[in-house]
Amino acid sequence: MIGEVVFDEVVSIVIACCMFVLFATAGIHKLNDRQTFLATLNDYRLVPPSITPMLSFIVPILEACLALFWIFQLLQPLTAIISASLLSIYTLAIAINLARGRTHIDCGCNFSAVGETGSLISPALLLRNSLLILAILGTLLPTAPRELVWLDYATIVVTTLVAVIFYISTSQLLANKTAIATWRY
Fold first, then answer.
1. Which residues contact 91 (CB under 8 A, 6 or more apart)?
2. Please, are residues 139 and 78 in contact by the beta-carbon 8 Å criterion?
3. Which end of the chain, N or C, is surrounded by fewer C-beta atoms within 10 Å?
4. What are phi and psi of 106, to 5 degrees?
């Protein structure tokens, strides 16, 4: 069909690998520090405090399950839809609190930051999450079937590593921005 958008399978695999890393590290981080995640959920003030303990357990388990579904390519369309929905909920929570003027909240997503200072919510997180959602939704597009060769696998590994390093670097820059802002007061 003329004008039909088709993804190369390598692009879809790279996105799947990146989503595996994102959701696995986020889920593990939140499970390892449930008290901090619980406090973060409470800071957003979007759900009753009585259910945040349950959410502080369910959300990281969901993220860990999504990571496994991404890496093993299980139920791919459903995995993409649930992943995009979860990131959309996070994005909406950030947007609501930005609209309320509550910019002092730790985003709860800065598992890659060095040190104890996280990132405060900001419009930059809205942009980052929107780009992640678009990448996830891109995996729902049809892929061009072809046999992968060694160069494709090398491309997948290198591109995934570069994407992860870029994500960690931008997360660290946002955390640094938060740390520097606290020095000014």
1. 125, 126, 129, 130, 133
2. no
3. C
4. -70, 135
